[in-house]
Input
Amino acid sequence: MSKVTLKDVAARAGVHPSTASRALDPDKGSLVRVDTVERVRAAARELGYQGDAIASGLRRGRTNTLGIVVADLGNPFIAPVVRGIENHLEGRGLMALIAESRDDPDRMLRVLNNLAARRVDAVIVTGARNGDERALRRAQRQVPIVLAVRYLPGSGIPAITHDDERGGRLAADHLVEHGHRRIAQLRGPHDISSFRERADGFRTRLQEHDIPTIEVEEGARRPILEEGRRLMDMLLTQQGEPPSAVFAHNDLMAVGAFEALASRGRSCPGDVAVIGYNDTPMAAFTHPSLTTVRLPGYELGRMAADTAVMLIEDREQPGTSLSLPPVLVPRHSTLGWHAAPTPQE
Amino acid sequence: MSKVTLKDVAARAGVHPSTASRALDPDKGSLVRVDTVERVRAAARELGYQGDAIASGLRRGRTNTLGIVVADLGNPFIAPVVRGIENHLEGRGLMALIAESRDDPDRMLRVLNNLAARRVDAVIVTGARNGDERALRRAQRQVPIVLAVRYLPGSGIPAITHDDERGGRLAADHLVEHGHRRIAQLRGPHDISSFRERADGFRTRLQEHDIPTIEVEEGARRPILEEGRRLMDMLLTQQGEPPSAVFAHNDLMAVGAFEALASRGRSCPGDVAVIGYNDTPMAAFTHPSLTTVRLPGYELGRMAADTAVMLIEDREQPGTSLSLPPVLVPRHSTLGWHAAPTPQE
DNA sequence: AGCGGAGCCGCAATCGATTGCGCACTGATG
DNA sequence: CATCAGTGCGCAATCGATTGCGGCTCCGCT
Output
């Protein structure tokens, strides 16, 4: 275990520790004569000196560490967000402390306290819920906070989100452009804002095309795949002509819809076109491959990190909120078998 | 921004900071009279005192922070591992600093230095490569290291892995049990130990059944899906009868194999059965759904964290290596369309 | 009353790096 | 030769929490 401290380096270079500190700091290098800097650098190299970020953090009041709180590490959508954050931090000398809140306000509180105690320079919270607002407000007095993915309306906390209303509109436009007129949506639970928004965007866009939206009851929380199957089945068995296209509020519901169609002997997209949401990795591998709306996870992470860095540099700044546009990824489930989908990879 | 320090708490409680420190430390609580402890606790609560983990870390030489280095945050297999680690850390007062090496030895070196500078108590490295050995050895002199997922043979660094040889044998047994005799494997790059082992396990198990393994050249690093397609295509077009079953070294290669089969007008599992590896989330949703070998990611993370914690508590200890058994998940790609696969969810 | 001992707690040093202040030295100038 | 500007660098304080050491208090016992 090495225990080389700044003092050791200074001794070897024959200077005072304070001089060594300045010589090793790129910003302060000019305060020391060039040959002294060289001598100190050499000594540091020879001893294998490794600065102590803890001690430095104590003195400077800055840890160059950023906290990330995610609701669920298992959610595949989180990986690109975290990656986007990491990537933006890279090269700025920052690292990320990561913690999981598991959609539990108590845990959220504990986790935020823990991060505050570690004096992180800022915190990015993905997937905040309404119940988390108290904890977030408290933490905000100690450390700058940026929300990602979900936001808290009226909280004034800067948030980087994706635009789900626009995502709903994209889905609507896509189906209309492909000639569909009898269109339904398989809704996710309404108490989650992102589902509500994509439902609203979809419906209002269809209205602008003078097309009514066929609504079924809203899906329960889980298992979400079963809900997709159940709702699709209701559409197929209720009176009147079934829709020619459905918008499933996420990819798993879409897969459930596939299963319902298959079990009733209907084909997709031949009888009913299906469009999903999220562009889960599996979407490219279902049968048929699933047209879906891709959310800009990586960019979202980058923007959140960028906002956090700005808040660190100027804590007075209010911080800007931002909503990133999703992208439609056309695949076979709405295009038919022989049309070539445009790959978006 | 609060700046309540231990001194403030002590002043309010009318005691010396050192007493306050002891009163607030559960391990030292007995060194202080009960009513004093109460008074200090009350003062801390009223002031909203939040200990400074940085200062504490400096003095104690322990940061209660663990570093995680992952090769690729986008790899879906990583999420459960990280989650398992997090979960084990939870309640022990530890948190995880996470960083990405991106399979680049230079980055690995930088990242490890960075973690060492932050004085993390231990580091878990998932997905180490041979080229990383130098960096790991150097880092090991500063901080205990535990490998996860991949290990470095002969390095003596404790490693928690899954038993890929056994995984290969599982795959072989499964295919043989289903009557296959002409069997090939689509190999991943051989310089990664886990690919090598699953290849060996598979081959030796087939040998024990007196069945030769049809080998094709080894796959390149990426894009791995294309490699699966390319190798499967080679098998289909080379002289002689093609195999009736193939073992793809991961699920993406298996999907590539699906594509090669489809483009040559062969069916799966009718003409060729395919078995994958990893049980990627998509495996349940491919067409046909993919029989595969599931790796115990979550448990692996927990065990790695456990080992790391033991090393922290006793740095002299060598640290135990461990290999966790994978599980075969039968689905349609080897069972045929009408047999009901046993769900493993 | 005096002594021993246990229990509490304060003092001051410590962890390692950073930084405001100011001394010392150089060289130029009057 | 004295003074001044200017540069280079050392001293000591600082960040906040922790802890070894030693002192004080109080109790019980003789």
